[in-house]
Write a structure and sequence with these properties.
Shape: globular
Radius of gyration: 21 Å
Distance between the termini: 51 Å
Structural class: mainly alpha
Strand order of the largest sheet: 1-2
Largest sheet: 2 strands, antiparallel
Strand content: under 5%
Helix content: 55-70%
Order of helices and strands: HHHHHHHHHHHEEH
Length: about 290
């Protein structure tokens, strides 16, 4: 590598070190940075330097051996008890929401832009996102995971890649199948009292006689939820939680918002399957099969 590339390599490596609350190798005079700041730096570099990390083996090594292990470690539920280094005394990063949002933004970048370079790692990341939808997770955590899945599901080519790389491989996880199953289970939980009614404190029963005339309401049994957002109907959709980088706590939101994100994600999956079917049918007609 040239001098500039070497400096970039050493700088990025030290960002990983500092984000992991470990001493840097190359930076002089820098002892610590807030974890949230380190994660934002990592995301900005990964978003803006795709070709560098996929075409230069030294940076691909950093991606595989520094970034991915760091992200997986920070997602670990036992991180508070397993850090290899003590937390710097002047760093305040106790809030789970701010760190989790930044981690998921990096994961979204990796599974979207680096899936061919990080095949095994992306399988792990996608499985982690699916686990975020488990009923024992905080409701905001389940919702922010759904925002990531919504962005993933809106890309038919990406979903097809996941099917080929994982679901159609005997030794791999059935990632696409798990995503659909997790979304279905989450939707059911919204109507069975195990969602934000108990965990988030923002949901309330809907009086069907007082709802706006143009509203969309989903009803199951005695529970009704009115959609407060439907991303698939908007030209541009800004995820509420993933974009809340300035927040230390999750901003207020309703079950209707989460339901809208999930519903739109399922619509994207259906459209992706339809597009894939039409492409296959077109190819069969071209080749007279």
């Amino acid at each position: 590598m040239g001098v500039c590339a070497t400096d970039a390599y050493l700088l990025f490596q030290d960002i990983c070190q500092l984000t992991n609350w470990e001493p840097p190798y190359w930076l002089v005079g820098v002892k610590e940075v807030p974890r949230t700041f380190g994660l934002e730096l990592l995301e900005n570099v990964l978003v803006s330097s795709h070709s560098t990390f996929t075409e230069q083996k030294e940076f691909t090594f950093l991606l595989k051996e520094r970034v991915c292990p760091l992200i997986i470690k920070l997602f670990s539920p036992s991180i508070k008890h397993s850090r290899s280094a003590p937390k710097p005394s002047s760093v305040s990063d106790n809030n789970m929401f701010s760190v989790c949002v930044r981690l998921l933004r990096i994961v979204h970048c990796l599974v979207t832009n680096y899936n061919t370079t990080l095949v095994t790692e992306c399988e792990i990341f996608l499985s982690i996102i699916v686990k975020f939808l488990d009923a024992d997770k905080p409701f905001w955590q389940r919702t922010v995971a759904l925002e990531v899945l919504h962005q993933v599901c809106s890309q038919p080519t990406l979903l097809a890649h996941f099917c080929r790389s994982y679901d159609l491989q005997e030794q791999s996880s059935k990632v696409f199948h798990e995503i659909i199953g997790a979304m279905g289970g989450f939707l059911q939980s919204l109507f069975t009292g195990s969602s934000s009614v108990a965990q988030n404190g923002v949901a309330s029963p809907i009086n069907l006689g007082q709802q706006p005339p143009d509203s969309i309401v989903f009803t199951l049994g005695n529970t009704s939820i009115m959609l407060s957002a439907l991303p698939s109907m908007r030209s541009s959709f800004k995820p509420l939680l993933l974009s809340a980088l300035e927040k230390n706590e999750p901003p207020p939101f309703t079950d209707g918002y989460t339901l809208g994100v999930t519903y739109a994600s399922i619509l994207h999956i259906i459209n992706s399957i339809l597009q894939s079917h039409n492409q296959v049918s077109c190819c069969l007609r071209v080749y007279n099969v």
